[in-house]
Write the structure tokens for this entry.
Amino acid sequence: MDTAEAQEQMLRKHKEQDKDNNDIDYYLHLPKLAYALSRLPEKVRNQPDFISFRQSLMNPQNAPYFRAIATWIELLSRSQ
């Protein structure tokens, strides 16, 4: 969630500077995200849809949706 907040701050900064959100040049959240994904429980990482999900999440074009995706990951990784 901290990574999502950092990404949202950069999106706000770009918006304040009247930059097009499709021209995002902030990618520092991606290494943090890769680390977080590698630390997910094995039951989550071994799901068949995880590879396409990971690729989608690591795509910089999906940055505006990052908080929703991060929330979903957090909910998946909670124990029952």
In short: The chain has one domain: 2-77. DSSP finds five helices and no strands in the chain.
